Amino acid sequence: MSDALSLTPDYADFSAALAVDGGAHSPLSQARKGQRGVIVRVGGQTGRSEAIDPEELERRLLEMGFVEGAAFEVLHEGLFGRDPIALRIDDMRVALRRREAAAVTVQFEKA
Predict the structure, then answer these.
(1) Which CATH fold would you assign to the domain 3-108?
(2) Does pTM top 0.85 for this prediction?
(3) Are 92 and 65 contacting, i.e. CB atoms less than 8 angstroms apart?
(4) Which of 31, 36, 48, 105 has its CA 20 to 30 A from that of 13?
(5) How far is CA 5 from the centre of its chain?
(6) Checking DSSP bridges between strand 85-89 and strand 92-96, what pairing results, if any?
(7) Closest CA to 40 of 110, 111, 108, 88
(8) Contact 83, 94 (CB under 8 A)
(9) Cβ contacts of 79 within 8 Å, gap of 6 or more
(10) DSSP β-bridge partners for residue 77
């Protein structure tokens, strides 16, 4: 099936590129409902071509509270393709598409 028609984006290639410290850090786009962790890095690169400039995406994420050291929890996943995701970041709630969430590197809590 064509990538343009896929309902579930493939982030496997991007997550392999971001694996740090033996896989301890992952893109936020891989998070599942109920997972918690800490934001490690915020960038503008998602690993895919974007309609938005990477610097603009990074600025928007920072303005929404995606800052290094912030605690997060995934509250909800969308019905189709698990997209978008609803997150609690410190004391606020934010909805974000998984495509943009790939620009945020996180460390998940061990279960």
Answers:
(1) SH3 type barrels. (2.30.30)
(2) no
(3) yes
(4) 36
(5) 21
(6) antiparallel
(7) 108
(8) no
(9) none
(10) 85
